[in-house]
Amino acid sequence: MRVKNSSGLFPPSDRRRYRGIVDFYRPNLESYESIYRDLHSHPELSQQEQRTSSIAANHLRLFGYSVHEYIGGYGLIGVIKNGQGPTVLLRADMDALPVRENTGLAYASKKTMIDRNGTEVPVMHACGHDVHVTCLMGAAELLAFARLEWRGTLICLFQPAEEFVTGAQAMVDDGLYSSFDLPKPDIVLGQHVFCIEKAGAVATSPGPVLAACDGLRIRIFGKGGHGSMPSNCIDPIVIASHIVVRLQTIVSRELQPGKVGVITCGKFHAGTASNIIPNYADIELTVRSYDTSVQKQLLDAIGRTVRAECNASRSPKEPVIETTAHAPATINSAKETDVLKTSFSSYFLNNADAMEPLPGSEDFSVLAKAINVPSIFWMLGGCDPVQWDEAKRNGTISEIPTNHSAEFAPVIEPTLRTGVDALAVAALTFLV
Fold first, then answer.
1. pTM above 0.70, yes or no
2. 13, 35, 125, 222: least surrounded by Cβ within 10 Å?
3. Residue 226 — left, alpha, or beta (φ > 0 → left; ψ -120 to 50 → alpha)?
4. Please, are residues 208 and 330 in contact by the beta-carbon 8 Å criterion?
5. Cβ-count burial of 43 within 10 angstroms (0-12 exposed, 13-18 middle, 19+ buried)?
6. Distance of CA 251 to CAs 15, 254, 360, Å?
7. Residues of the chain with pLDDT under 50
8. Residue 171 in contact with residue 368, Cβ under 8 Å?
9. Around Cβ 376, how many Cβ atoms within 10 Å?
10. Is 271 within 8 Å of 236 (Cβ atoms)?
């Protein structure tokens, strides 16, 4: 049994023993490399992760986990109760993206699926969730065999629909914390692979590490007619175009210097033919921020700008503004993150770094906020070390394909080994 010091933390010499535990119990990762290639070749869109979920569930059962499936869709948890002690939740997301893969890998996805709009689309693991699933499966095996080294309850959670930023809340709403006679987690832990960091490295910091996300769908109304007679019409494409341009001045002209916000229009659709002015135009936005005051300021300004532009252009109807997605900022709990940083530094040595806040978003923190417990999220490096070192020398790191790119291709090793080890070290840090 490990003994904490007077500060309530494990002494550094105790943390170093994680090396021996992880090295002794780490599974043969060749089988996990095969699992990773299989998952990468068979990606599944959000809310359609049936195959991936089944693979994870069957794997957990092999190592003695009590498995509960179909939580909030295809979400599942595997649980090991191993005596009195803290409860630690490890999370991985499972879904892929509607992207046509262009990596040239032998195991590249050629899959298509029908999306939620009824459209057949190419599908790719362009955000590394196949890495996350594989690493958690590996860590689940390691920690199951290492039960003599820890006490408490371990929950391995595989989450659907992260790309919709709805999956975590769906699992909570479907009884994640109320339906399975589980102790409430004392901490929620997760990781995300990025190719802006070298494979073999991990990085985390207390405070904000990922931005809040709001998705908006906006319909702007006009008066349709013949394209040769615009004076008889009210052109919603022109109105929407003005809105897209004007929205870019919110961040540059309304936010205080030093405050961070992003407003991006990623989708613009209107019309059916070049000589027809349509009755409406649709735009879709993503909005990112790190604190709630900036988030409110951005959303208020977007609504004001959209309505003002429509009014100035004589739009016949008020615009319709719908929220399509929302996720809170990912903010690492300060005290617990400092503890984990010490564990990571002891274990990974020079490959443990500080994490700068990123404008990407996650619904990971929903799992902790729902029960008011601490959470920690860290970055897992995925870029080939040789490629990374060369890019760093040449100042071309920004040219490395990153998440959501059709060329996104984390190197298999040492990414998987590092991800398995990081999850295991994190769990052991907070289990007794």
1. yes
2. 13
3. beta
4. yes
5. buried
6. 44, 6, 17
7. 1-13
8. no
9. 27
10. no
CA separation for the pair 177, 59 (Å, rounded): 22
Q: State the pLDDT at residue 14.
A: 54
CB-based contacts of 269, cutoff 8 Å, min separation 6: 281, 282, 283
Reduce the secondary structure of 89-128 to three states and give it as a string: EEEEECCEECCCCCCCCCCCCCCEEECCCCCEEECECCCC
β-pair partners for 83: none
Angle at 300 between CA 294 and CA 306, to 5 degrees: 130
Strand partners, 17: none
Q: What is the pLDDT of residues 291-338, one digit of tens each?
A: 999 999 999 999 999 999 999 999 999 999 999 989 999 999 999 999
**Residue 306 and residue 327: Cα distance in Å, rounded?**
23
Task: Confirm if 70 and 76 have CB atoms less than 8 A apart.
Answer: yes
Distance CA 108, CA 52 (A): 16
Amino acid at 57: A
In a 10 Å sphere around its CB, with 0-12 CB exposed, 13-18 middle and 19+ buried, how is residue 1 labelled? exposed
Supply φ then ψ for residue 149, to 5 degrees: -95, -5
Long-range contacts for 22-25 (Cβ within 8 Å, ≥24 apart)?
Answer: 22/142, 22/347, 22/421, 22/424, 22/425, 22/428, 24/146, 25/142, 25/143, 25/145, 25/146, 25/149, 25/424
CA distances from 126 to 99, 107, 129, 396, 406 (A): 7, 13, 8, 21, 6
C-alpha 316/C-alpha 223 separation (Å) is: 7
CB 377 within 8 A of CB 330: yes
Cis peptide before 414 (omega within 30 of 0): yes
Which residues contact residue 129 at a Cβ distance below 8 angstroms, ignoring those fewer than 6 apart? 92, 93, 94, 95, 96, 162
Eight-state DSSP code of residue 349: G
* Cβ neighbours of 254 (radius 10 Å): 14
The pLDDT of residue 15: 52
Phi and psi at 98, nearest 5°, equal -80, 75
